[in-house]
User: Fold these one by one.
Assistant:
Number 1:
Amino acid sequence: PLTRLELIDRLKEALSQERFEHVCRVEKTAMELAQLNDVDVEQASIAGLCHDYAKQRSDKDFIQIIRDKKLNPQLLNYGNAIWHGIVGAEMVKDELGVHDEDILNAIRQHTTGNSYMTKLAQIIYMADYIEPGRDFPGVEEARQITKHDLGAGVAYQTKHTLEYLIQKGQPVYPQTLTTYNAWVPKYR
Ligand code: DGI
Ligand code: FE
Ligand code: FE
Ligand code: FE
């Protein structure tokens, strides 16, 4: 496996400066949440760094992997926003040599969430949403909630993201709805 510094070199090559700085902030936020929640800080670091590795890949690369690896063909109805996590995890595994399935699942779930999420997956989902570079109405509330209760943070983000998608008339990936049903009523 690559060392953290080798990983950082690969990420710098794969990402714009802005995106690279985002993943560094997600790494730091994820490590802080890991410490607060008794999760392996090293796993949080690698997952945070790699979560958006595939964000700037072409549609063609994603479509090829969806076909070659026989991933859910429904994926073809969506685009980069959904692909870069679910399909991107395959690129992280095959190109960066990250084989830890907990890390790969956290990357797979970082955009849509899922009904069952490990604490690591919850941390990456939340770190991406609340990293210090994020600025949207409610982000400070999301930071406070998440610091005190990781699961309540997951519910908060899921509800607000679904509201946003509906308000914009965007297609909702079924797993996003699954996440909503599993988390939002529970924390009401
Ligand atoms: O990659 P990032 O920008 O750091 O963040 P992300 O991976 O969490 O989210 C990327 C975008 O995906 C964000 O604008 C919200 C959007 N998204 C989340 N769930 C869905 C979705 N877009 C669609 N179309 N459908 C979804 O279910
Ligand atoms: Fe992302
Ligand atoms: Fe996110
Ligand atoms: Fe991100």
Number 2:
Amino acid sequence: NEAAMDQAEKEALLKKDRKYLWHHITPHNDNPMVIVSGEGSWITDADGNRYLDGMSGLWCVNVGHGRAEIAEAAAEQMKKIAYSTLIQSHVPAIELAAKLNEWLEGEYRIFFSNSGSDANEVAFKIARQYHHQRGKPSKHKFISRHRAYHGNSMGALGATGQAQRKLKYEPLGVGFTHVPPPYCYRCPFGMTKGECEVQCAQAYEDAIRWEGAESVAGIIVEPVITGGGMIVPPDEYLMRLREICDRHDVLLIVDEVICGFGRSGEKFGHHNFGVRPDIVTMAKGLTSAYSPLSATAVSAVMYESFKASGADSHFRHVNTFGGNPVSCAVALKNIEILEREQLVSRSAYIGNELLKRIDTLNGHPQVGEIRIFGSAIGIELVTDKTTKEPANAAVVSAIIGGCKQKGLLIGKNGDTVPGFMNILTLSPPLSATDEDIAFIADTLLQVFEANGGG
Ligand code: PMP
């Protein structure tokens, strides 16, 4: 505990925290963990306790903590010029837009904003305007999935398919409908994994028909539903959605806010499925969260209609901070690190290695299923493997608490219906060392062993 903060200093800080700070999405807590530093996969709190950051913050610190060269890139850019709008142009935004095209392996125009929610709002607005400009103004609806999370602002929350996050805040942005998720473990269509007709994809086509294709602007999907419980679709699902979109002149918007920048084991999650989206939204791993930045990548073909002559064809959208030069410089350095250290393939390695090491958990009476996408892992807890009744909150808390006690932070997610937050989540930094991987796996095995054997 040599790095511990002086106790009087810590108490003074907590006093101010209790009085002034509003914590995100959590019940009131007078004793929050106060994080003071980080290095690699590890973070340190005010008491000097070290924890392996098994969720990379909120699935975002892809290159790990404490990268001095990112701080230096930010300082250098701040000294040159810290702010310029994107009504004009600036060097880091130009370079980053070009680099993102390389990563996307397609031709896209890049619109910069501040957060993942922003990036999705921009996608919805651009999609609607695009249809207007093609003489199809009635195409305005978006279809999403139940269980999906797409952000906290009124439109992005409208697209979100988790009831508990929306209650008390309605009415939200209108024009969003939802279809069942491709949740093979609890198939909404009563089918068995690997023996179905991918009815979950067909549900999208049915919804488009029932809503009327002439009213549908686009569908939005994450390659894998991450925050809603690590729901990995059948291999052909995304390709089927691409075909359905093409048949009905509907745009395919892929939300890569979590799956992008290596988390999937490829550069982007849609690459895992060989699909080309019309719009790709990204945030988190774009800067590894060292600075706020998001992007909406729009196919070059779509952009043509925004280039057309006439005063009304431009996208009437601006935000002060979007594409901030410092954030763009941070993103460029972050991507340079991802490339130099080959962290995209490292991500796939980390996932596979973890899966191998925790394989015996499949025999644990309360592990229903372990699901993986790149280096993102979900462990679905049940009270009974046959009935699949979700594990109760006490069991989930015991595992998460046990891990924390041993110095491993993991997440939980699920349906956000009380009692159904039964999926443990892991998404460690892509820079995690072999020792880090062993620590995560050993800790999980020990904690599960102490909670019901394995
Ligand atoms: N889309 C997805 C898939 C996300 O996971 C998140 C954030 N967890 C968002 C959008 C929203 O991003 P932000 O919190 O930056 O607004």
